[in-house]
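Page header: ASSEMBLY MODEL / two components / 681 residues total.
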Amino acid sequence: MIKVLDFFDYARSESPWMVHFCSGCCSLEMAAAMGPRYDWERYGYLPTPTPRQADVIFITGLVSKKILPVLLRTYAQMAEPSYVVALGACAFDGGPYNDSMSVIKNVTEILPADVFIAGCPPRPEAIISGLEELKAKIKRGEPSSASQGGLWKEMKF
Amino acid sequence: MIEDFREYKKNWLVGKVESSELLEVVKKVKEEYRTLITISPTDFLERIELNYFFTDLESKKSLWLKTDISRENSKIESISHIFGGANWHEREAFSTFGVDFIGHPNLKHIIISSDFYGKAPFRKDFDIEAHQKEVEKHSLDIASNFEDEFSENSDTETTLNWGPTHPASGPLRLKVGVDGEEIKKVSADIGFVWRALENLIERKDFVGAITAVERICFMDNTNSMLCYAMAVEEIAGVKPTPFAEVFRVILGEVGRVSSHFMGIGGFFGTMGLHTLQMWAMDSREYFLDFLEDYSGARIATASIEAGGVRFPLNLETLNTLEKAIEYYESKRDEFHSIFLKNPMMKKRASQIGIISADEVHEFSMAGVVARASGVETDIRKDEPYSAYEKFDFKVVTKNGGSAKNRFEVIFEEIDESVKILKQAVSDIRSGVSEGTYNLEKDHLVKVPKKLPKGEAVSRVEWARGELMMHLVTEEKGKTPYRLKIKAPSFNHTMMVEKLLEGCTISDIPIVFGSMYICQGDLDR
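Prediction written out in full:
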């Protein structure tokens, strides 16, 4: 017999909605993945304007010092379970802006990501394949990484 | 009053003034040059040099004034009451170089994040590592002053935060003071994508800087690389081959077209009509296919460098471009009949966000925004670069200056770009068959790794308007000593503040969408 919780994980995994949040250039390829050629909606993904209805937040590339609190607050506003997907080289270690004085290099130490998608910017196919990984993680019923730890819990924002 | 007054290049004059006489000179300058392009400070360790760039959009003449101020007591008279467009540029120089502009109406920090306030981060002696250590010590407090920033309400006026998470805003915040539905005051809070590119480039070599330059804005990144490459070539004294010049035009126009598709998509998306957004992105993909065929990357192509273009061209690649043009042309009439003649759009957008031609001159509007107000300005015609002189195209202008007019200009410009692309493709094909172009060798001319001491100004017509770079190099320099980037969205966002006063809340996305702003080039 399928347990009720398993059913919820299944249902959640087949329609992950992501909050509309962009902080860097990778959002352009995210838009392309939304677009007609790649059309991520056929996999059940949908962007939503409000964090209250969202399951996933994207770290779209670079996060500057100024937008970090916005990212964290948007994440905190999402209902549990809320997952994080890190897009591009910048979200990993600053990428091409690694030397820059205003870009945060360790975003995923602050807000741990469930899936990393490589590229600068990642191709739309890569974004969709990364999201499929996320689906598998949700199906397994694993908790999101950000709920398990990360500096964001100690920060004031 | 102006010393060492001479011609810098065609239609450009350059001279030096004493900082105490600047105000008087600028008042005279205003009679002939009505627009301030930007203010670019350079730190020479014993002094700070301020470069003022003026232009006149009618006579197409430009002027470059230099003045020195001391480093310790870096004060100068503000010119923002003479040139309205100077307001934010002075605030930027104040934030990044700590130059104090006496008499500026609102000299507050802009762009830089709060940990740099009062520290002049772009000065040469700023210790980034020490600052970084200091910040890391307090890393948990980075976000602490957020609470006060985002809640400022008084009894009669409510402050509404439009952005930075609004679906139409992108990373930018408009603090909108509203009384009921009516907008009383708007002030823009920018810097959410500040990557300190101008400083970052100073730590890269001349080739490596391309990766930073192309990331100013990903919507149209080929033209920004072109601008940088032209500046480096001018100092190095290198000229690219005729083939590279023509191919640069192709890359530039493909960048422009793909950016315009995002632009019209964004404009209609903010009105709630997502169909056009989808259609435009569909056509855009075909143009990105061409970039991918040529360079291997859809967006971050790094395809233009000083001396020419990076890769040799395979003639079959041009077939992909022709396919893209064909696809767009098969869709073009549908685009026009459904969206350009859309009665809802006409009604909604023709009365708001009106910019007069005088305001274009005063506040240094550029590109699409300027042309929609009837000012015929296009760097491709005014100061022809690459091979644009060879090709036949017209500058699209509209009278009226409303949101609708800007939308129409973008639409018609796509057609003009397609016209240029077709001519350039046939130029390359015939050049190859006649034997004037050698595709294997002609793409790149060698540029030395170390450049001589020099200064160069280069301007290109970007998708959103004029992009200007001011490059300074040292003797045998391996890295740019200073690169000032002037991008159009900076002035356009300044204008949004003025345009929205008196409108209602529901007008914000349409006016903002029509200004065609990219947050990447706004913050740099």
